[in-house]
Amino acid sequence: MKKEIEEIYKDIPFGITSSIPMSEPNQKIMIYSGTFNLMIGKDSIEIEGEVWFDWFPHINTKFNGIVKSSTKDIIGLLSANDKYDLKINDLLFGESYITNSIVGSNAEVSGQVLGLSVIGDRTIPISKITFSIPNLRDFWGLPNKLINEKGGYYSGHNRLIFENKDYVITIDKSRDYKKSFESLTARGGYFLLYAGEIQKKSGNISFENLNKLHHCFSTFLSFINGQRCSLLFLQGIHDNEIIWTDYTGYESDLFKHVHSWPQKLSINGLSELWNEFYELWNNNANDEDFLVSAVHWYIEANANSGYLEGSIIMIQTALELIYNWLVIEKRKLIYGKDADNISASNKIRLLLSQFGTNIRLPQYFINMKSYLDSNKDIYDEIDLFVQIRNAIIHSQEDKRRKLSKISHKVKYEAQQLGLWYIEISLLNILKFNGKYRNRCSGKLWTGEDEEDLPKNKFNE
Asked: Are 25 and 189 in contact (CB under 8 A)?
């Protein structure tokens, strides 16, 4: 029987599990317990205590402990109100500052680490990186397997592979993903839901090169997730030995339910999308900045930051950014003063014209249609979107009065329309060739809202 089971599962790869155990959302992650030092110049404060990773109020690492030096010797150092190098085992962990100190018969200090927080020697190049990811949405991926409690196998469609000319990045959903996600939904905050590894196709990986890849891939994951999520708890491994562990609090958003455009039960096209994203990111500094900014405004608007009105402002910011990058800078379709003088509505129309001819007011948007039918002076839905945005930004009395007469439902549909425009634009720019979830379809059941992008003219 065991041989039969082995035969069935022989071609299914083993899953990757997180090196950081979490049994509940927002769980404190212990990093180090023992003696460490705070250095300022040549002076050192020796501390017996703990260093840990915390999720609130911000993702970062913290420390607390009892000062082992005499109280008299360290009073001046504690009141320096300066940054300290936190060292563990004589290696720099990170730059820190003291948030609280209590001086009595003993001195106790607490503090936080600023920026990079790495235990181990990050100057050593490594051959493989492992990591964890919080709050990433569910994907129906490729099969993998794990050994279960009875010595058999658990298998599921839990794997995503992102491969390009330089790297192979594999991420695996946790075995208890469904249970963990339900707990995250109920309690909010953060929960590690995926684990993964990065392997370079040729040569070793330096910490500097990893930082560049980390920023790129985390931005890409945020785009497909609909809210920010970063690779966390990265470990540099060489010859099966952990050389360093990165506990930096890379930016990830508190969990909330948001729309994300990828299909629910298919990952077709995602690896190819990553290839295009990676190539554009590494093309030049301007294109990297474009992707960072476009994804930023998209994520903020999709999360309803600033509520509905704030989201609409961010959407137009993103659309004008995409217009300037594509129409003016890349395709050079307009020169001189005309590029500056064109109206916002026409910028959006010209942008969308690059991708397809069937981008129209969704049939499901009955509130926008009704408003347009009763306001003949507004040319179309794009004009209406821009007028709503302008009324929010330029808040003279007449504009505030006009805005107050536009129903919440009309503004909501305008917001969703604008987000749809961003998704269409970025997916076409990145040459996406799969189906996507159309947020404006009006379909409610899983899979019914999945369709092809409007006819792509970007590469014609």
From this structure: yes
Domain identity same for 250 and 280: no
82-116 exposure pattern, b = at least 16 Cβ within 10 A, e = fewer: eebebebeeebbbebebeeeeeeeebebebbbbeb
Q: What is the pTM assigned to this prediction?
A: 0.93
In 3D, which of 29, 31, 35, 33 has the Cα closest to residue 90?
Answer: 35
Gap between the terminal Cα atoms of the chain: 57
Q: Are residues 97 and 107 in the same domain?
A: yes
Domain count of the fold of the chain = 3
Alpha helices (H) along 405-446: 408-429
Say if residue 221 is in the same domain as residue 316: no
Provide the CB-side half-sphere exposure for 460 (13 A, CA).
Answer: 8
pLDDT beyond 90 at 107: no
Specify whether 285 is located in the same domain as 433. Answer: yes
Taking only the tens place, the pLDDT of each residue in 222-268 is 999 999 999 999 999 999 999 999 999 999 999 999 999 999 889 99
Pair 132, 83 in one domain: no
Of the residues 228, 251, 267, which one is the last residue of a structural domain?
Answer: 267
Tell me which residue of 163, 197, 152 sits closest to 15, measured CA to CA: 197
Give me the domain span that covers residue 423.
Answer: 275-452
Please write down the long-range contacts of 444-453, taking CB distance under 8 Å and 24 or more positions apart: 446/264, 446/265, 447/263, 447/264, 447/265, 450/263, 450/264, 453/355, 453/356, 453/424, 453/427, 453/428
pLDDT in tens, 18-56: 999 899 999 999 999 999 999 888 888 899 999 999 999
